[in-house]
Amino acid sequence: MIEGILAGLSTAFSIQNLLMVVAGCLIGTFIGMLPGLGPMSIIAIMIPVAIQLGDPAAALILLAGVYYGAIFGGSTSSILINAPGVAGTVATAFDGYPMARQGQAGKALTVAAIGSFSGGTIGAILLMGFAPGLATVALLFHSAEYFALMVVGLAAIAAFAGSGQVAKALMMTVLGVMLATVGESALFNAPRFTFGVYDLQSGISFITLAMALFALPEALYLVLNPKRSERGGDGSSKIANLRITRDEAREIAPVIGRQSLQGFFIGVMPGAGATIASFLGYAVERNIAKGEDRAKFGKGSIKGLAAPETANNAACTGSFVPLLTLGIPGSGTTAILLGALIALNVAPGPRLMVDNPTIFWAVIISMYIGNVVLLILNLPLIPYIAKLLEIPRNYLIPFILFFTMMGSYIGQNNATELLLLTGMGFVATIMRMAGYPLAPMLIGFILGPLLEDNFARAMNLTDGIGFMWERPMTLALLVFAVVLIFLPSIRAGFARLKGDEAAQGD
Amino acid sequence: MTLERAIALVFILICLVYGYTAFVVMEASILPFERNLAFLPNVLPKWLSVIGVVVGLAVLIQSRGATEGEADPDGIDTGNLRQYNLGQTVLLLVLMVAYALLLRPVGFLTTTTLFIAGGAVILGERRYTLLVPVAVLAAFLIWYLVQEVLGIFLRPWPWFV
User: Fold this and answer.
1) What is the DSSP letter of A231?
2) How many angstroms away from the CA of A171 is the closest CA of chain B?
3) Inter-chain contact A415–B101, Cβ cutoff 8 Å?
4) N or C, which terminus of chain B has less Cβ within 10 Å?
């Protein structure tokens, strides 16, 4: 392990990779501020660039830098104009925007930067401690267990979607897996479900799908509802007074400590990710706070800003644990990273630490560097960063649409992708209007081929589906998946039953 | 019928077509010697279509009791779409399709300039003296970055040049 860390250190500190971290953080921060481009779309745009690099370690370091940068950039636009560029920073806007309106925009951005830095750094330390252990356990897994694990992952994504959303999230997951079966695959000799359309033979590119599911609907929402990009109240453009006082630092320190831990562990769970971590972090801190402090939440509380900011960065780091050790992406963003890794001929999973220790450790060490770079970049740049938000909407939206299309065109050099993108983007917008969560679909799409590969291998080994109950670990995992799916409705049922009893008792 | 349930219904229909393909069409194309294999191309699709129909029905049943308008708190009220800029949205989508169809034959520089300028005009931009230079400059800069710096080929000029 020490050798691995040393190899990783030397890789991460090479000039090229240091440049990658800086470039990634810069690009991520600037694009992440644009409403409509979240980390998922930015990473998707950057994938062709990363693949051109050819070196998987450099590519992953670049993309990870973009990821942190984007999360921080998203909080900038949340705080300044109440337009979260990323779902994970919606909770940041709850207290960040009121602070900005009270003329404390500079302070709010500083708190956000410090929260992000602490969350990210503590997360990276935890990642170093947990990932190797998890990877050892994961080596015991065979294809049957992998298949079951994928099922658990997909079920967990649906189960964490929130009450009343489980069935919808599950539906989106199934749709994603179904889309993944279109075209040729490594397993069989003939293309499937192309319905005679020649251009579908190579399947649907995941970048196109990612753009269609996230960037395009957000851009169309901005067109549909101009209020989303409107600049509110006065004082938001003034960014003076960056300092925080000693008292304020003392106030947010325990919040940052708690939320780094909580955020990390939420990030580790498949399906949760930064968005849920930030909302939960905000809710928990609000419940812990007492009296006056609690009343300030939502009206510009410094604690209410630090909590989601710390939690979402810690969760970003946490979501690398299942990606690097099990090969299961915990969120849409890590799903895109997984796709990029596979394109670079690296198979994330328990073997990654054994086969490619340099990549594994270089990525983790680059996380520390990335966090420092973010802090150094952002504090002095805050006033300039805000200028980007002044691009008029009439120019911003065509550029977002254009970059979306470039993202999917450059990867494939196929104009049909653009038609697919527009069509799927239109459908995705309608689904979003109806309240369907879109991230499970992308995760299903990415996990689909892996699921089928392991399913096929397990079936071939045991000559049938007997492996599902013959192997205890597989059976346990599958039962767990079923429990995960039905748990929310069972709990709701119990709550209703209790409510009925209470009503009868009255 | 709410949009939510309409989508669930369409999804079930898709699952039925998908299932028909898996159970009937693909089954027929399996060669005799393949029949004894444990895993065939249509094994997973069969499972998926069945699960899909069940989940789709669950969404249909569940959404019956749900109240309308709570779908996306920060989003679009689907009950009253007329208050939004539907025209602009449709025009932008048409513009995207046009871009997709023209990109290859007309070349990257011309189509991109037209796309960015056209998009801005659709959104209400009328300062043409600013608009045209911005669009031309952006198109050229991006082309230069992608083709010359990153080395990804983008045909810059129309087919006859």
Assistant:
1) P
2) 6
3) yes
4) C
